[in-house]
Amino acid sequence: MPDTKPTALILLNMGGPDSLDAVEPFLYNLFCDRELIQLPAGGLLQKPFAKLISHFRAKRVVQNYRAIGGKSPLLEWTQKQAAGVAGRLGERFKPYVIMRYWHPFADDVLAEIRSAGLETAVVLSMYPHYTGATTGSSVNDFKRAAARVYPELEYQLIEEWFDWPGYLDALANRVNEGLDTFHDLMRDEVQILFSAHALPQKFIDRGDPYQQHVETTVQEVMQRVGHYDWSIAYQSRSGPVKWMEPGTEEVIAELAEAGHRALLMVPVSFVSDHIETLEEIDIEYRDLATSQGIVHFCRTPSLNAHDDFLTALADLVRERYRL
Q1: 174 is an active site residue
Q2: Are 103 and 181 found together in one domain?
Q3: Do 179 and 292 reside in the same domain of the chain?
Q4: Taking all residues of the chain, what is their mean pLDDT, rounded to a whole number?
Q5: Catalytic pick from 12, 27, 30, 168?
Q6: Residue 254's domain spans which residues?
């Protein structure tokens, strides 16, 4: 007989500030994470470093969040995704969201799950492409919290799904929706630029599969979309370390210099709208592109709570959880 025991469906994500006042403490939590940022001197200086850099970074970052309404929409989208996936899986699944660097934190959510009497859980990382800096950090945070708060909980982890067919289909649908915004006479000239969040190059050099996962996703998506010129770049690079290349800003400039006038940007490592899509791509990169001579700039819709994406995630849970 199939298992009908009530089960928590837990989505893991990065989180974001829910107000302008939360920007600095959010950044502090992020810079304190040694799985994301490793200082040469070790953990001793991590918190003083985080305190200092979050204070100075916050002034600029607050302006970025102010430009998109004063907060991150990531929690709202992740909650909608959790509810949508749980609804497709059936009544036994109860949706929960855990964020890494801002509320709701793992300890609080696990205490809620324990109080609800749920003894089993499926834990789904909302990062399709695995890297120790994001998926690894969130999963380890969850494991530590589970050991502290609810060691009896039985759970199964889904840590990457970069090549899941339903996800690839949904992302290809968003690319086609973006292409549909261009005039028919211009569509063949559109350059498609997939933009993923950058990592310090040392993560890739040590064997992190993130870049390989991103490249596989893009190749599979473009097999579904068809014959267009496309490229991959990496955004959100800052600080005095060597980052993955090429940078998104550099590729935009190169495309403009080559005479291209129509650009479709696809945020490939992000499954929800947040600061990197709404501010960095929609404002900063749009301004850069138009200043370089690109006349027609468009970004594909994010996956957010699209029906095909939520159905794909529900199918993923069924497959990995063997429902």
Answers
A1: no
A2: no
A3: yes
A4: 96
A5: 30
A6: 165-299
